[in-house]
Amino acid sequence: MARYILKRLLAMIPTLLGVAVLIFVLLRVVPGDVVEARYLGQGSQYVSQDLMNIERKKLGLDLPLWKQFTGWMGGLARLDFGVSMWTGSPITEEIKLRFVLSLQLALMASTIATLLAIPLGILAAFKQDTWVDYAVRVFSIAGLATPSFWLGSLMILAMLIVFKWVPPMVFTPLWVNPWENLALLIWPALAVGYRYCAVGTRMMRSTMLEVLREDYIRTARAKGLWMKLILTRHALKNAILPVLTVISTEFAFLLGGLVVTEQVFNLNGLGMLFVEGISHRDYTLIQALVLLVATFFLTVNFVVDIAYGWIDPRIRYR
Amino acid sequence: MNRVVRFLAVAASALLAFPTLAQTPRYGGELVFPVPSEPPSYDGHREETFGLIHPIAPFYNTLLRVDPFDKTGTKPYPSLAESWTVSADAKTYTFKLRQGVKFHDGSVMTSRDVKASYDKIIFPPPGVGSTRKGQYSDVAAVEAPDASTVVFRLKNRSGSFIASLLSPYNFIYKADILAKDMHWYETHIMGTGPFTFVEHVKGSHVVGKKFADYWDKGKPYLDGFRAVFMRDSAAQVAAVRGERAQIQFRGFTPAARDDLIKALGNKITVQESPWDCILMVAINHQKKPFDDPRVRRALSLALDRYEGSKALSRIAIVKEVAGVQVPGTPFATPPDELAKLAGYWPDIEKSRAEARRLLKEAGVPEGFSFTFMNRGIPMPYEPLGVWMIDQWRKIGLNVTQRVIEPAAYYAALRKGEHEVGMDFQCGYIVEPDLDMYKFLSSSRNPANYGYYEDPVLDALYDKQGQASSVEERKQIIRQFEKRVLDEQAHYLMTLQWHRTIPHSSRLHGWTITPSHYLNNTLDTVWLSQ
Amino acid sequence: MAAAPQTLEELSRAPAPRARWRGAIANFVRQRPLGAVGAGIILLTAALALTAGWIAPYDPLANDFGAMLSAPSAAHWLGTDAFGRDVLTRIIYGSRTALTVGLGASFIGATLGSLIGVASAYFGGRVDMLVQRVMDVFFAFPVIILALAVVAILGTGAGNVILAIATPMVPRCARVVRSSALTVREMPYVDAARASGFGHGRIILRHMLPNVMAPILIMGTAFLGEAILLEASLSFLGLGVQEPIAAWGLMLRGAAVEFAETAPWMAIFPGLAISLAVFGFNLFGDSLRDALDPRLRTQ
Q: Sign of dihedral through CA atoms B319, B325, B331, B334?
């Protein structure tokens, strides 16, 4: 077990290195750089080439690419993420608050998705091919089909018109003011959670169907729903596992992937930071962010695998 | 009779513009306003965005400022300089500084600080960037003969020198700090302004609180302010609507204004002004058939600017039909004169017929296709793009739009890849020297994206700058405008931006100007109950 | 599922008498009513896209400022937008963009992904190892950043949007197809093919690929709905197709947000169009999955 964990952890390093190379190259291929983003197109009358050269030099953009890359890697080895090219402040400071927001939102959305998916999936499986099954499936697939930015806009508009309610302007961490915090995050969490519950519901339904095909359950066919539920409670644990896997994979995606939802709900999370970073050509910030999200993704997958084996001893590690 | 009417009009507009003067300012309260973008660094000498001005300007003073109650945003007004004189040859400007001005750290501001700040702007040492250096190419030296006097010596006389000192970016920094570290102000804030810095939470907000030792006794009125960074415009409108914020200083769309009035009635006060920003179309003379002035004129003739003004002012932040100066400002061409230029004729059918004739004459076939390059910014680039493409379709041109992401856009313009592309100019003050520089030959202005040489036009530009009277200058500007927009049609103008600020009726002491860079020191602003 | 065709040859040779098809369709409708509803929606969308030129009541591009922002009426069933363009017309034309991008992206994503997956499984060993590591990298890479970067490098426009959407689909498809292909590799007929000296390309294309068609089809249909949704999101962010081309995501942008209160029809109908189309594809895909492989759980 310990050897397996170590092996998995070591296997992350080449993947992360690959991610680092990929984002480094991608950013340099994208036309424009942070200095152009800063000085061109602000509508001012005078543009000085001189100034742009000075700024490039200051940021080390005049260095050969391999030097820029090794410099970045060297910093990472010392756990120094560097400073943002756009603001000049340490990247950890730029990311801090936004990370808290995104993490909380991802957690809330995943919780909502799980809480919806498990009962809905079980219900659909028990009532397979009846109207209940169809209703559950339509409900969950509709969630998957509705653009969350559109749903979000409609939610905001409805609350504005009906309740004259406007969400708080800024994000306050949960421990500072839970009420303000939840007032801001509950709506996007619902919009996103509804969307992601569809995947889990589908998984829950199919694993549950498999459980229901087991012989001893079939014999209980004549008995009521509650009877079946009691009979299946041991099997349930195993049926829920794949659902949790799917949702935790989605959870890792949520951390960096809520660009449009964050825009609609005016949330300053990592998704918006991505968009801003790209539009500012803030190489150092984007590089750090991508690595952060990738590490998070790999770690979640790793933890899920480990937990899987721990809950279900039938799975053996290679 | 006429005079009476004019007097009444002036009186009425004065009443409308300064309803606040009648009331006594109330002290206290925190002003909350959303800012659509976050400042990159804190150094005004280095940055070019209102995202810096709105949250950071209240911490600083400049040498001169624009009169905070002047709606045209052009009148010079004392700030750290109490008064100034100009020598007979107009090459020496002497400024008398205010006494007893304190920095937030308690030290006294002197001429050394002003000189050090302007030296940083005009003569930055190697390795220090200053974006506005080019604007002061006429300045030979900045001197500080005694603690309360600053002298600027110019190489040539310049009609726009005072205007260039009105720049809201030219914060006065402390000389001792600059001597130690020229980059200190990029990451720190310490000025003489009416508010002191409290905090900046990245991605969230900047907070300032009243500076008790502010030199202008009795000001500021506010206890503090909170600038909240909100990228999404709908969220900004919602903040004002939910009365969580009192104002957004950049400008809202007409739709937002109407929604706010509908929702809040007289709790909302609206101020509007032409906006000193305009999108214009750069026609690349290096690409055929756009080297032919007939084709370029046809592009301008195709636009029904008057109908466009009426319709687009309902859905976008544009309104006035404009030449090379912001309508309504001293050097702007009056509407009936403007209507004589090609593309500004009141009869659009005649215009379009002429456009088709010119295209035919130039050998451009019906259904000719070209690409219009536009910048990926929603407002007002998108609506103007949709509008122009439809207008060009009406003279038989088949235009596809290629939208480029904002950060890559100017790289593309600079490469000259475009056939026809959107270009943008935006100033802090209406001043012909600044506004018309854009149109000079590529050899003089590298930011000319039409890529043409026109010595006649350059000569007119130089002549207007040296003109001895306002009337003469107006005449030359008229000729310049006719050449650049009509005869040669080097560039074509879309519609002037229109600034609309619906703000809480509780907010007083703030007057709109044509620029969203101006009037953000917040010393005169106060909140009623 | 009785005797599914085993190879591509069989698939193409399979006789398709009308009666059999009719029976199969009737069967599908009876057994999977939701899937049939989905198929109906898909057919409707496709019909709209194909006949847009004839059935759309107005010109999708022409501005008409006299009619700007008008509410739904007899003249404009779904109202007009900020430029006076008919919303219904633009929704009809928008189905073309949605289908082009959806089909293009999922086709490229699924094809490229399955080729890589099958080849990786077939060659095994170091090649497989290397391909897997590269796929891991793409997996760990945030999808939206990949899409943003592709658009930033190549520019906007339908073709580039297809690439931007297809790129993150490739590794996902490759992973699923690879695991199916691994079992196929051990089949005797692959050994036989190898023994008779067929080239790698032939074995991969003619012997292995046809046998993993089920997961590829399932992935492909799942991608379709997703691609349409992603296209709408990218257009909404201004990174997709560009005005004046009609596209659903584009219609939800700008003025639709500005006038959400006074002219809600501008936002509601295109949003419904997106939801309905994606809903149709998902319903159909779901039923297809059930029909082809009820045990296939992988995403």
A: negative
Confirm if B529 and B346 have CB atoms less than 8 A apart: no
DSSP states of A113-174 = HHHHHHHHHHHHHHTTTSHHHHHHHHHHHHHHHS-HHHHHHHHHHHHHHHH-----SS---T
- Chain A residues touching B409 at Cβ < 8 A: 32, 40-41
Long-range contacts at A2-8 (CB < 8 A, ≥ 24 apart) = A4/A317, A4/A318, A5/A306, A8/A302, A8/A305
**Where do runs of H (alpha helix) occur along B281-429?**
293-301, 305-315, 335-338, 348-361, 381-393, 406-415
Q: Does C134 touch chain A (CB under 8 A)?
A: yes
- Looking at residue C247, its amino acid is A
Query: What whole-number distance in Å separates Cα of residue B206 and Cα of residue B226?
Result: 6
Size of interface A-C (CB pairs under 8 A): 133
Which DSSP string corresponds to C174-187? Answer: HHHHHHHHHHHHTS
Structure tokens at A111: 């919780």
Q: How far is A176 from chain C (nearest CA, A)?
A: 30
C232 touches A: beta carbon within 8 Å: yes
Q: Assess whether pLDDT exceeds 60 at residue B87.
A: yes
Which string of DSSP letters, residue by residue, matches B112-172?
HHHHHHHHHHHSPPTT---TTGGGGTTEEEEEEEETTEEEEEESS--TTHHHHHT-TT-PP
Instruction: Give me the interface pTM, i.e. the ipTM.
Output: 0.84
Length of chain B: 529
Please spell the DSSP secondary structure of B176-210, one letter per residue: HHHHH-TTHHHH----SSSEEEEEEETTTEEEEEE
Cβ neighbours of B307 in C, within 8 Å? 65
Closest CA–CA distance from residue C36 to any residue of chain B (Å): 39
Report the residue count for chain C: 299
Name the pLDDT band for B20 (thresholds 50, 70, 90): very low
CA distance A51 to chain B (A): 5
pLDDT tens-digit readout, B422-474: 999 998 998 898 889 999 999 988 889 999 999 999 999 999 888 888 899 99
Read off the pLDDT of residues C133-148 as tens digits, 9 standing for 90 and up: 888 888 888 777 777 7
Q: Which of A161, A210, A259 sits opposite C261 (nearest CB)?
A: A161
What is residue C80's DSSP assignment?
A: B
In this structure, the strands spanning B491-504 and B139-146 are unpaired
Strand B205-210 versus strand B224-229 pairing type: antiparallel
Check C271 against A199: CB less than 8 A apart: no
**Contact (CB<8Å) B49/A42:** yes
Stated as kind and residue range, the H or E segment containing C133 is helix C125-140
C-beta atoms of A19 and C140 within 8 A: yes
Q: What is the spatial distance between Cα B374 and Cα B401, in angstroms, rounded to a whole number?
A: 7
Q: Token digits for A41? A: 């197109």
Segments of chain A scoring below 50 in pLDDT: 317-318
Q: Does C186 touch chain B (CB under 8 A)?
A: no
pTM for the whole thing?
A: 0.88
Residues of C in contact with B374 (CB under 8 A): 242
* Contact in structure between B151 and B143 (CB atoms under 8 Å): yes
Give the Cα separation of C190 and C198 in Å (integer).
Answer: 10
| DSSP one-letter string for B395-459 | TTEEEEEEEE-HHHHHHHHHHT--SEEEEEEE-SS--HHHHHGGGS-TTT-TT-TT----HHHHH
Q: Which residues of A touch C238 (CB under 8 A)?
A: none
Among C64, C81, C258, pick the best mutation site for testing chain B contact (most B Cβ within 10 A).
Answer: C258
Residues 32-71 in C contacting A (C-alpha not used; CB under 8 Å) = 33-34
Closest-CA residue of chain B to C65: B311
pLDDT tens digits, residue range B277-305? 999 999 999 998 999 999 999 999 999 99
